[in-house]
Amino acid sequence: MIGIRDVHLELQSQAGKVHILKGVDLDVRRGTSTSVIGPSGSGKSSLLAVIGGIEKATGGSVRVADTELTGLDEDELALFRREHVGIIFQSFHLVPTMTAVENVALPLELAGLSGASGRAAERLDEVGLSHRLDHYPGQLSGGEQQRVALARALVNDPELLLADEPTGNLDSDTGDQIIDLLFATRSHRSTTLLLVTHDPALARLCDNTVTMRDGHLSADADGDADISAEPSLAGSGR
Amino acid sequence: MRWFNLGRIARRDLRGSLAGFAIFFACTALGVATIASVGVLNESISQAVERDAAALLGGDISIGQPNIDLDPAEVARLAPERSRMTANVRTNAILHADPQDGESRNIPVEIKAVDEAYPLYGALGSEPALPVSELLADGRIIVESAVPARLGIAVGDEVRIGERTLRIAGILTHEPDRIGGYINLGPRVMMSRNTLESLGILVPGALARYEYNFALADPATAVATVQRIREDNPDAPWRIRSKADVQPQVARFTDRLATFLMMAGLTALVIGGLGIGLSIRAYLETKTDSIATLRSIGASSSDIGRIYGIQLASLALGGTLAGLVIGQAVPFVAAPLVSGLFPVELDPTFEPLPLLHAGAIGMLAVALFAWLPLARCRDVAPADLFRSGIQKTGGRMRHGRHAVLFGIGALLVILVLAGAPRIGIAAVFLAAVVAVMLVLAGAARLFLWSAKGLRPMAGPRLAMALSTLAQPGNGAVSVVVAMGAGLSALVMVGLLQDNLERELLARLPERAPDLVFIDIQPDQVEPFSEAIAQEPDAAIMQLAPVLRARVVRIAGKPVDEVDIAEDVRWTTRRDRGLTWQAAMPEHTELVAGEWWPADHDGPLLVSVEDEVARGYGVGVGDTLSFNVLGRVMQARIANLRKEIDWSRGRLDFVFVMSPGEIRQAPHTTVAAVDVPPHAQARLMDRMAGELPNVTPIAIGEAVERVGEIMGKIALAIRVVAVVTLATGLLVLASAIVASRRQQIRRAVLLKVLGGQRRDILTLLLLEHAGLGLVAALVGSILGGVGAWILVSPVMGLGWTLAPGLVAATSLTAILLAAAIGAFVLRRALTVPAATILRQT
């Protein structure tokens, strides 16, 4: 599902160039779940962004869902995401002026599909929010907002689900509920999951765990094995 | 389907944001309303003139001749087949009244004598409403209401004109064939032709105009008929016009005013555009996260462009439509206020074309200012959701986008010029507006740059205010440009009006003679001089022979075939007064050629005003031919004189002939007389008794009428200048709103660090007064320079700076800027620090 080789990412900051990813290799099999852990600023979220076609790698090769992303322009990447990827953010990133059902319907409407509202309502029902369809994000709790985000990420049945600290802004009970929901809906569809988290317990729920440290990826939580020495991180699935 | 979906997303995304577009909406509506109302008003005037053209001319075609009546056989020869005809004579006279309070009074009046067929078109309005034959029976007259008002008499009373006593039979309320609104020598008195002839004032050479108007069997053939008659009579002394000539005559005045007002509306729109740009930028900044989210779930940059394009286009359309509704409504309200300026009854109707024009300009102006922020929002990357501290999207603009911007600007200019009644004026105006905005933008940047340098020298509060002003991206440049442009317009109009009033209304009457007497017959010059001599306080300043003549050939070519400069074309449009003189008049400055010897008795020579000669494309040695009462006389140009300074109030003439055979032509004499106000009535009484055909013109009264018309025009211009300044203040408000979150955060941080409300208020006032000060300084200088250019080099009048006016306007703007700043940011003073800190 995911195959990246020698990926580099450099970004311009006010203080100068920042080298975020420094030659990362990673393979993820279709249908598996993988967690990425590591300290703040190690490049976890950037890796997720590169795999989702949100950030363009400045070097190396990124192949996701049989598509080589490095040669695509911004609009081709948008189309790629629309067809293959769902994303959940730590800060939910719902559009504040749209209701829950409108937020969930967005990917379908952008794809020009009809019946978007009906499908969005079904997804919200799946995450237990059928009674909150017409509520605005400001009227929902953090857990409810993240459930809306999950419904939006899954509404177009993506092959790959990317989750960036999905429980980072939630209390532990609500966080647990979201994680249960996330894994349940993913396994129901056999969606490949790549999860960025600080939480070792959450990481252990995944088939595989990799550690990011200062722009380098290692194979286990302790970070003492270099991924580039063992490119395949296939697991049995949860 | 996709467009429909994108439209739906655009609508949802806009929810709750409409309040932030109040300034955007107001700026668009204000500019469009100004342009639309001017367009509708001008179209209404054009249509009213077209509708009433035959009535305004007095017939489908009109043949007129000054001073000498046409031969009846000639009239019969010229009369188109199966046409109806009416003849009228217009002249000036003194009307004398002995009201019951015993104090007799005289006023100059304009007489119009008509026959029973009058009017061919339209209806004569009178009180009482009786048939013309009854109202104007022998010895009876009808007068404008000014006559009884000024003389203290009433309908039914008797008055005297010339040698006869006449009875006022009614009040003239509407004269269909009078292109009014211009300066008249006195109120109208209407009578029958027979009555006029019995007054004894129509002596040979007297200033009079004889007119024969025809209603054609087929009115549609008017232009062709005039063409045919002109071709059949190439050197005719009379002048023939069709109703099609009325429109251009009126348009000469209305088009200039309309163009000016339309350009002023465009200025308001362009200045408002800066506010529109700031509003859009602020709005799209709040949308960065939403845009990045949309991008992360699969929206392409084109989708983003379309979603926000749909939003802005809808809002622009809303503002434009509101502007159009106001623009269509204004003429209904304004028509009674400006009616005195135009010769027709204004009847505003729904005018789709000017509305369409104004609407298209409004939409394009919004597009001009929305384009770059809109193009930038397409660059928002989904990665922005993951980044903090690392540079977000933005950066360099692509060349293609500037090309589109240039294209929109060019289209706007083309549309504006195409719709302006006078392209030349519009082009100059546009260039001036762009120049003013560039100078203001340069001045603003210079100020912001120097603000950084001044910071170390200033006290702590001022230093903080300066650093806020110098901060990039805070809209300070837009604010200075917008407010400065509004102020410069206001200062310019103020100074212009002040100088014109000073020069024309105050100084001109001081320097000009108090009374000018016209129509003095050759044999009356001596008795006239004696009459003046008997009046102890009166003195003749100037005496000049005058005859009426029309330029018919320039350097041998018929006038119609010569390309004459617009600004001197008036000299060929109708008969003009010209004079002759042996010696060079005092204060004359020759720029070419020489004055003829005092005893010159050779071929006719002419001295021409330099500017007119240039406009004709002729010089010394070329010939001009004049039609003098039916006889064409050719004169060789002997010299060119420096432009006439009309503000000196002397009797002056564009054409001065050498004496000789021209002395034989029927002529009258005009005299300029100085006489103090208390002796004026007595002198006019004496003249009315001794020389009843000699008409006095009181310069004071004429100047008063000029003042009235100027006042109305100035009011219209001032309204537009205020609209422009109001737009500038709206831009200021939008700039503050755009940076409000940042400003409130700063205020809260200051509070946390121990700042009191007083400190924060001082800071806010200092910052905004600083912006107002720069705008006021530069705006006043630009407005002053603009007014000076118009008053001194263009109009050739004396220039006085009114520092009080400039200071008052500037101070008001500075205070307003400070007050608006403090008002919009008042929340910064009251909001508890914890509320803001919790949000971050």
Explain how this protein is built.
The complex is a heterodimer of chains A (238) and B (840). Chain A is built from seven helices and ten strands. Chain A has 238 residues and is an alpha/beta fold. In chain A, a hairpin with a 2-residue loop joins strand 9 (208-213) and strand 10. In chain A, helix 3 crosses helix 4 and helix 5 (142-154) runs parallel beside helix 6 (172-189). Chain A is globular, with a radius of gyration of 17 Å. Chain A starts with a strand and ends in a 20-residue tail after the last strand. Mean pLDDT of chain A is 84; it is low at 221-238. Chain B is of the alpha+beta class. Chain B has four domains: 1-55 and 249-421, no CATH class; 61-215, no CATH class; 425-511 and 706-840, no CATH class; 539-674, no CATH class. In chain B, 54% of the residues lie in helices and 17% in strands. Chain B is built from 26 helices and 21 strands. In chain B, strand 17 (623-628) and strand 18 form a beta hairpin. In chain B, helix 14 crosses helix 15 (460-470) and helix 16 (476-511) packs antiparallel against helix 21 (699-738). Chain B is elongated. The two termini of chain B are 40 Å apart. Chains A and B meet through strand 1, helix 1, helix 2 and helix 3 of A and helix 1, helix 10 and helix 11 of B.
Q: Ranges of chain A with pLDDT <50 over ≥5 residues?
A: 221-238
Number of DSSP-assigned strands of chain B:
21
Low-pLDDT windows of residues of chain B: 389-395
**What radius of gyration of chain B results from the CA coordinates?**
33 Å
Q: For the report, how would you describe the main beta sheet of chain A?
A: 6 strands, mixed
Shape of chain A: globular
